[in-house]
Amino acid sequence: MRNGKTVLSRCVFGLAVVAAASGCTSARRGVQRLAASHLADTATSYNLAIEQTQDEMLLLNVIRAQDNYPLYLTDASKVTGTVKADINLGLKIPLVHAGKAGGNDYFAMPSVDYSSSPSMDVNLLNAKDFMTGFLAPIPTDMFAYYWDQGWPSEFLLYLIVLRVDVYKETGDAKTPLTYVKSLYNHPDSHDPKQRDLQGFSEWVYDLVHLGRPLLCGDDADGAAVGPPLEKQDLNALKFLVPVAKEGLSLSPAYPGGGPAPAASVETWQLRQPKKVFSLAPWNEAHFCPKKIQQTDASGTSSPSDQNGAQRPAPFTPANVIARGPTGSHVVFGLTLRSPEGVLYYLGQLARLENRAKEQRALLIHVCDYKSGCADSEGGEPPVSPLFVALDRQGHGACPSIIWVRSLDGSDYMIPRAGEDPKKIPGTGQFLQLADVAHLCTTGRSMHALDLLSQLIGLQKTAKDFTTTSTVKVVGQ
Asked: Edge to edge, what strands does the sheet with 469-472 contain?
């Protein structure tokens, strides 16, 4: 009889183990599905957190530029962590069987263990390699890349172009171009008439109002690198060529620049190949193949203007060339900003909106002319603020996309999307400014931060991430 009860107990125990295992497998599958769903939500939350972190970092530095404070760029390079989900199914087994068939002699006690331990690497972007690119002018091929991508032409010209040098074609082979003046893309919060910006805005209007200009690329004569060397110094110069990393070539440097037999060349020079990009009026594509005489990068032969200031060299590797309409005989050399300059330009726009007596926002056309986005009457395309960053205290009724607190305790925000201004109380025919007293619109602000973020990201190398500090993020 005792042996029968023992066998029965073992059978019951075996059934309990099988049931527990089956329940454990089913529960584990449920936990796995729960963990997978939570992991997807966690990854999305990390992505949103990085978005907010990066946008606020950019806006904070724009406000620093507005106040002429030092810039501190940081980057949340990655979020790492582990997600652990486990299930334990404990089985309560009596050590002594009293012969009573209790219903709760064998039962399972499941427990679920779930944990998440993320961490974020935050880097201060101040390494030499990063700062070298951050402070250098944007390469002309990068300007061409954005232009070909289809970004609005006014958007790119206002954000990226620092200065336009105006030249007149003379028809003289010795001095084909004469310097006329320079137009500065500079919003000055202390100048109610915005004289600098007025001239630049007029140039932008003249360039784009007939349609988006065509961008043409052409191989130009290489820019000189270093002084010319005589024939006796050629051996030393040849030694430098193999170690150059910029595609330098050894070329004859003879008067006139025309072809000459190698035997007659007494002076040689290192030259750097370059590509010249020209903007031509959309209806005058025949301008594209026409080359413009280039100057050396040094620009040492530039004459001074009537005030004694040094005139800019006509065209260097940092220039984009633009042509006036047929018959004008005018050529423009566009000097591009650095990524730091783009950031400071956004700070100037924010200063114009928050520090000027008459707080105003710069307006641009949101799409190009002749692109099908003009109004129903065939007039100009709609306008929108280029960048809006407002003091929250004076615009509390405006909902914000992002906001930051500056060092002095003031809060600044980019408003949530709203209607762009329909009436333009501008200061002139070409420069369009809007009163920000009741302005509650995002405009092109997030596009501007996007472009700035890309330009900053292009300066990063692996060296920027060798030293990091870890910020622990506690999971819920």
From this structure: 74-92, 107-124, 469-472
Q: Is the pLDDT of residue 209 over 50?
A: yes
**Residue type at position 192:** P
Is 130 or 425 the better-scoring residue by pLDDT?
A: 130
Average pLDDT, the chain: 76
250 and 238 in contact (C-beta within 8 Å)?
yes
Would you give the distance in Å from CA 328 to the centre of its chain?
A: 35
Give the phi and the psi of residue 250 in degrees, each rounded to 5.
Answer: -100, 120
Strand pairing class (267-280; 319-323): parallel
- CA pair distance 317, 272, nearest whole angstrom: 10
pLDDT tens digits, one per residue of 304-342: 444 445 577 778 777 899 988 777 889 999 999 999 999
Residue with tokens 């009860």: 5
200: burial class by Cβ within 10 Å (0-12, 13-18, 19+)?
buried
Query: What is the Cα 157 distance to its own chain's centre?
Result: 15
The conformation of residue 304, written as its DSSP 8-state character, comes to: B
> Taking CA 255 as the corner, what is the angle to CA 249 and CA 259, rounded to the nearest 5 degrees?
60
